[in-house]
Amino acid sequence: MGSAPVSEPLLRLRGVTKIYEPDGQKVVGLEGVDLDIHSGDFLAVMGPSGSGKSTLMNIIGCLDIPTSGSYEIKGIPVSRLSPEELARLRNREIGFVFQVFHLLPRYTALRNVELPLLYAGVGREERTGKALEALRAVGLEDRRNHLSNQLSGGQKQKVAIARALVNRPSLLLADEPTGNLDTKSGDELMEILTRLNREGTTIVLVTHNPAIARRAKKVVTIIDGRLVSKEDSRELRE
Ligand code: ADP
Ligand code: MG
Questions:
Q1: Where on the phi/psi map is residue 47: left (φ > 0), alpha (ψ -120 to 50), or beta?
Q2: How many other CB atoms are there within 10 angstroms of residue 72's CB atom?
Q3: What is the 8-class DSSP label of residue 57?
Q4: Confidence of residue 3 (pLDDT cuts 50, 70, 90)
Q5: Which numbered atom of ligand 1 lies nearest the CA of 51?
Q6: Which of 68, 80, 88, 149 fits as disulfide partner to 105, beta carbons 3.0 to 4.6 Å?
Q7: Taking each helix axis from N to C terminus, what angle separates 183-198 and 153-165, rounded to the nearest 10 degrees?
Q8: Whose C-alpha lies nearest to ligand 1, atom 17?
Q9: What are the tens digits of pLDDT across the range 63-101?
């Protein structure tokens, strides 16, 4: 990913529908979503609670598959990838940041950031070097030896971003990353994301907050599983 020609979208969703059937009852997660995301985009996804934002993120991040419709990454249908190819894609090309931080509380910040590399079998020296670099990128190098439960919410989220970045993914997916943060930490986080995007990372960000969404380049709104609008983020009103 990352080097797709300008004309061809990095990600292409066509008629993507997701139906959940938890106990025989059908629940619509997404319905007929058409969406192109280009390399270098910074897209905000807005919409009320339960409208399908996380469902969309899970499909884009290959954590879940659509019930119908097609999803292509760089022109390759994701449904045709083998489980190994999918895992490789997720590990190497996609970074995830969630509203809850999912850090291991008794591990240091550095160790938390190293984990994806540990799972990928990267040797110790390279692991530490890359993790330090990622912590530096979010301004937390000096907190590397703090246990994650000794960090503030904003710092935890920055560690989570460093962890998502440590493999240098070309696509960063952030599902309400500022949802649990105060305004100042949220602003700092958006500054980090904006810089990463300027440096070439494609970003898809879910948020409830119009002030946050306005800092993306484009905004789409989902209501009841349907994509109802696509606009330039500068057109967003309060
Ligand atoms: P959002 O992130 O916008 O709050 P979600 O994508 O989480 O919305 O959910 C969209 C709809 O799908 C909701 O009605 C939700 O209850 C339902 N849903 C989401 N995940 C599941 C699941 N694993 N099983 C059953 N229903 C689900
Ligand atoms: Mg959600």
A1: left
A2: 18
A3: H
A4: low
A5: 3
A6: 149
A7: 20
A8: 29
A9: 899 999 999 998 999 999 998 998 888 888 899 998 888
Dist CA 172 CA 169 (whole Å) = 7
Task: Quote the distance between the C-alpha of residue 23 and its chain's center.
Answer: 29
| The two three-digit tokens of residue 60, written as one number | 């884009």
Written as one letter, the residue type at 35 is L
Strand 226-232 to 218-223 pairing: antiparallel
- Parallel, antiparallel, or unpaired for β 27-37 and 11-20? antiparallel
| Torsion 43-47-49-52 (CA) sign | negative
- Kindly list the strands in the beta sheet with 76-77, ordered across the sheet, starting from the edge strand earlier in the chain: 27-37, 11-20, 68-73, 76-77
pLDDT score of 91: 82
Task: Give nearest CA residue, ligand 1 atom 21.
Answer: 20
Ligand 1: residues with CB < 6 A are 20, 22, 27, 29, 47, 49-55
HSE (side-chain half, CA atoms, 13 Å) at 195:
11
Instruction: Give the burial string for 190-213 (b: 16+ CB within 10 Å, else e).
Output: bebbeebbeeebbbbbbbebeebb
Q: Which amino acid is at 62?
A: C
